C-alpha cells in the first residue's frame, strides 16, 4: 500500500516581513495567512552563512533549492572562490593560468565575460577585480584584457551599474590592465528560456561589434537612465575607442559567473558546433574556460569544479523505493531538478519530472499569473492518479514578478499563487497527505527601497515561512529560527526515514 502523499511546496521569492507597506505577501495572500494562523509554523533563515553564503549576502533560488534538497548547509561556489582568493589558491588556478599563458604566447587577447554586480547571486565584482590583478601580475597590460560587462539591475538596484563601472574603471587603471569593451543588460545575455533573439544581441555586440557606440561605459549608463531604461534592459553598447576589442579567432574567453543556469545559453553559442538558435555569422575559434561547471556536457576547463553531494533527500527516498515528482515552470525547472538534486542532471530511480512552459512575455508583470494554473493542474492530475508519494513543486510568481518591482503586478502574482495554494492543500488533505509550504528566499514582501526611494527589485535578507499541514501535525511544536537545511530532515522524520549522517540539518519539529 502506497503512503499518503507528502508535498514540499516552494513559493519562490515569498519572504516574511512584519511591516505591510510595499509587502505583496502580506496584502495579497489571505489563505496563506490563515495557514500560518491555524497550523504549526516557523521562520527559516534563507541567506548568509546559514545557507553557505558569506555573512549578510541574500539568498537565491539556486542556493535555496540546493540547501532544501541536501539537508545540510551547502557551501556555495562564491564562498569557495572567496576562500581561494584569501588563501592564495585563486592565483594558482590552472584554468586561469592556462588562458593567460595562451594569450601571452600567441599575442592574443583575454576576454572576461560576466555579470558586473555586487548582488552576489550570479557573479562577484570582487572576483572580476581579482582576475585583473592576476592578469597584471602575469604580465598582461592595457587592452590585453577586454571586459564584456553584463549589467544587473535585478539582484542590485535598477540603476546601480554606473557606480559599479566607475569602480571597475578605477581597478583597470590601478592594475594597468583591462578595457571595458562592451556592455549589455542581463535581460539579453542571461536569458534561460531559449529566447534566442535576446542572446543574439549579446553575441553580436561581443563578437561582431554590433551595438550603439558611446564615449564611455558610465556615459552609456547615464544615457540609458535618461531614456528610462535601467541596468537589466540595457541595449548592447560598444565603447568608443574600443571597437577593436571584439572576440576574434585565437582569443581566450573566461566566463566568470559562478552560477550556472543563466550562463548555459550564452555558453552554447560559444562552443556548440551544431548550434541552431540563430545565425552566429563568423564564429571565432577560441580557447574558453568558466568559473564553475555550467553543465555536465561542457568539456572545457573549469576553475572550480562541482563537488558531489551524497545522502541527500531525493537520493534517500529513491533508495527506499518511493516515487517522487518534480513540478515547475520553465523559469524554475532547473531549481526543482538540477539544484534540488545537488547538481545532478539525471533523474533518480522512481523520479518523474513535469515541465510546464513559461509564458512568452517580455517581462512577467505583463502576465503575473505566469504558469501557476498549469502547475496546479499538473499536481492535481498527478494526485488523482495516486502513483506518486513525494512531490517537490515550485510556484515562480512571487520571485519572477517581484523582480519587476511593479507592485500592482506583484500583488496579482501573489493572489494567483494564494488561490492555487488553497486548491493544492485541499487536494492533498483529501488524500490524507501532508504538505510543507516554504520558500527559497525573500522578494515580494519588500518591493520598495525606503532608503533610496526607488523600487526594490532584488532578493531580500528576510526569513521565509515554513508551514506544516497534515493529519499528524495537530499540536506539533516547531523550533524557532531554523534554516533551509532543516526542511529535508523534517520531512524524512515525518516519513519515518532516517536521515543520512552527512545531513547537519535537524528536524524543525520539537520532540
From TrEMBL:
CC annotations in GO: cytosol
Binding positions (Mn(2+) 2): 12, 61, 440-441
Record's keyword annotation contains Isomerase: yes
Residue positions of the active site: 61 (phosphoserine intermediate)
Short name of any one Pfam family annotated for the protein: iPGM_N
Ligand binding (substrate): 122, 154-155, 186, 192, 259-262, 332
Subunit structure: Monomer.
Physiological role: Catalyzes the interconversion of 2-phosphoglycerate and 3-phosphoglycerate.
Family the entry assigns: Belongs to the BPG-independent phosphoglycerate mutase family.
Stated name of the protein: 2,3-bisphosphoglycerate-independent phosphoglycerate mutase
Organism of provenance: Saltatorellus ferox
Gene transcribed to yield this protein: gpmI
Amino acid at each position: 500500500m502506497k503512503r499518503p502523499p507528502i508535498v514540499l511546496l516552494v513559493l519562490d521569492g515569498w519572504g516574511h516581513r512584519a511591516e505591510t507597506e510595499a509587502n505583496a505577501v502580506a496584502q495579497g495572500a489571505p489563505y496563506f495567512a490563515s495557514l500560518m494562523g491555524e497550523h504549526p509554523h516557523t521562520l527559516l533563515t534563507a541567506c548568509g552563512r546559514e545557507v553557505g553564503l558569506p555573512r549578510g549576502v541574500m539568498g537565491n533560488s539556486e542556493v535555496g533549492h540546493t540547501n532544501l534538497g541536501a539537508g545540510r548547509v551547502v557551501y556555495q561556489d562564491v564562498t569557495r572562490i572567496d576562500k581561494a582568493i584569501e588563501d592564495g589558491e585563486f592565483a594558482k588556478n590552472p584554468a586561469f593560468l592556462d588562458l593567460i599563458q595562451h594569450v601571452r604566447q600567441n599575442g592574443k587577447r583575454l576576454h572576461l565575460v560576466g555579470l558586473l554586480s555586487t548582488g552576489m547571486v550570479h557573479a562577484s565584482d570582487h572576483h572580476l577585480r581579482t582576475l585583473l590583478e592576476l592578469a597584471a601580475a602575469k604580465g598582461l597590460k592595457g587592452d590585453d584584457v577586454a571586459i564584456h560587462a553584463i549589467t544587473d539591475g535585478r539582484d542590485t538596484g535598477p540603476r546601480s551599474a554606473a557606480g559599479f563601472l566607475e569602480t571597475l574603471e578605477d581597478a583597470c587603471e590601478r592594475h594597468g590592465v583591462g578595457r571595458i569593451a562592451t556592455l549589455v543588460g542581463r535581460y539579453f545575455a542571461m536569458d534561460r528560456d531559449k529566447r534566442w533573439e535576446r542572446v543574439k544581441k549579446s553575441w553580436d555586440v561581443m563578437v561582431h561589434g554590433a551595438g550603439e557606440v558611446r564615449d564611455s561605459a558610465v556615459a552609456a549608463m547615464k544615457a540609458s537612465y535618461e531614456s528610462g531604461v535601467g541596468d537589466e534592459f540595457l541595449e548592447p553598447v560598444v565603447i568608443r575607442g574600443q571597437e577593436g576589442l571584439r572576440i576574434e579567432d585565437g582569443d581566450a574567453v573566461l566566463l566568470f559567473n559562478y552560477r550556472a543556469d543563466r550562463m548555459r545559453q550564452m555558453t552554447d553559442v560559444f562552443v556548440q558546433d551544431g548550434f541552431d538558435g540563430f545565425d552566429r555569422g563568423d564564429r571565432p575559434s577560441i580557447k574558453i574556460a568558466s568559473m564553475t561547471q555550467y553543465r555536465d556536457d561542457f568539456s572545457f576547463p573549469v576553475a572550480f569544479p562541482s563537488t558531489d553531494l551524497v545522502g541527500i533527500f531525493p537520493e534517500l527516498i529513491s533508495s527506499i523505493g518511493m516515487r517522487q515528482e518534480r513540478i515547475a515552470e520553465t523559469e524554475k525547472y532547473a531549481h526543482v531538478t538540477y539544484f534540488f538534486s545537488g547538481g545532478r542532471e539525471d533523474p533518480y530511480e522512481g523520479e518523474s519530472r513535469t515541465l510546464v512552459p513559461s509564458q512568452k512575455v517580455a517581462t512577467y508583470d505583463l502576465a503575473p499569473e505566469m504558469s501557476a494554473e498549469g502547475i496546479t493542474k499538473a499536481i492535481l492530475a498527478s494526485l488523482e492518479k495516486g502513483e506518486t508519494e513525494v512531490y517537490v513543486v515550485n510556484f515562480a510568481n512571487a520571485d519572477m514578478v517581484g523582480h519587476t518591482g511593479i507592485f500592482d503586478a506583484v500583488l496579482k502574482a501573489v493572489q494567483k499563487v494564494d488561490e492555487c495554494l488553497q486548491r493544492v492543500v485541499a487536494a492533498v488533505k483529501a488524500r490524507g497527505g501532508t504538505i510543507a509550504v516554504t520558500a527559497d528566499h525573500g522578494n515580494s514582501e519588500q518591493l520598495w527601497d525606503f532608503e533610496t526611494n526607488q523600487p526594490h527589485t532584488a532578493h531580500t535578507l528576510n526569513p521565509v515561512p515554513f508551514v506544516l499541514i497534515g493529519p499528524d501535525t495537530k499540536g506539533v511544536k516547531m523550533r524557532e529560527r531554523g534554516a533551509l537545511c532543516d526542511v529535508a530532515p523534517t520531512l524524512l522524520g515525518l516519513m519515518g526515514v532516517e536521515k543520512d549522517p552527512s545531513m547537519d540539518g535537524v528536524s524543525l519539529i520539537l520532540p
